[in-house]
Each structure stands twice: as C-alpha cells, then as structure tokens.
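Table S4 entry, Carboxypeptidase regulatory-like domain-containing protein.
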Amino acid sequence: MNMGPESESQGEFESLDSCDERILSVINELHHRDDPIPSDLNARVQFVLELEAELDARVARVSRSSELVLTRGDAELAVGQGDPATVTFDCESVTVMVTPRPSALKERRLDGWIGPEGIYEVELRSTDGSKRASTDESGRFVLEGLPEGQLFQLVIRPHEALQREGLPAVVVTPAVQL
C-alpha cells in the first residue's frame, strides 16, 4: 500500500483538535441519552455475585419458547401476542416453566410448574429480597406481590425423595425481568 502525501500527514498519534472534541462530545451525549447506565446496575451485579458465592448449584438455561403456540378453541395464538409470555428453564433433569401475570397495580404474580412432578421448595430472589413457596405434588406453585419490572432468579430445591431419585439438590435459573 502506497501512502500518498495526504495520509502521511495524518498520523495516528496526533493530538485531538477542537473538531475531534466536538465529535466526541456529541457521541458522549448520544450514549447518555439513548443508552444510559441502568440506575440499579450495582444492585444487579451484587445480587448475582452473592448468589454465585452462596450456591454450588446446577444452573438451568432458558429454553427458546418462540416456537411455542397456544391453542384457544380453534384459534392459535403465538406466545407473546396478547397472552402473558411463558418462560421455560431446563437443566439435565429438571424443567421449570413460569408465566408472569398482572395481579395488582404495578405488581406481578408468577404461576409456575416444575417437572418431574413432586414437592419442591421455590425461592424467588430479587434485589428487594426473597419470597418462598412450596409446590403441590404436581409441581405447581404461585408467588404473588412481585414488583413489576424487577429482575428475579429462581432457586429450586427438590424434596429429599426426589434427590434420592437423582435430582440435584439445588437448581438455579438465570436472572430474568418480570
């Protein structure tokens, strides 16, 4: 590549001039306006670090549910088109499906099902603290009074009988937002 006279004078180590500073200032303003740092970023990071420090658990992954279709009578309705979105988490031996629903002003209710069927202790952890529920024998649970828009993570503890059948002692889901 042959460098002409104009590119030779534009070294990569030249100091910034006023035009460069104006361009950088505009870029900085755009970032602050259109993509600000979340106000609760520190709380989110601390939440995840505390959980990782406390638990030696199997981490479930989010199953892609975009292919799921709900059927209501003869009409089909894709998830996320009017009905509450259902999120499914799974690891080797446990599947957790949750559906957030509005319950009160700026609050959510979380309906959940865990498979295989059995008794589980469910802990929902958020930056506001934690809430607990137990499943019925079919693996169904409900958590109510959850703040809308809150980042949460589920910690699932199977009953001892299920652990004897090979289920892990603790399963934790990735953090998702209500």
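Helices lie at 5-8, 18-34, 41-54, 160-164.
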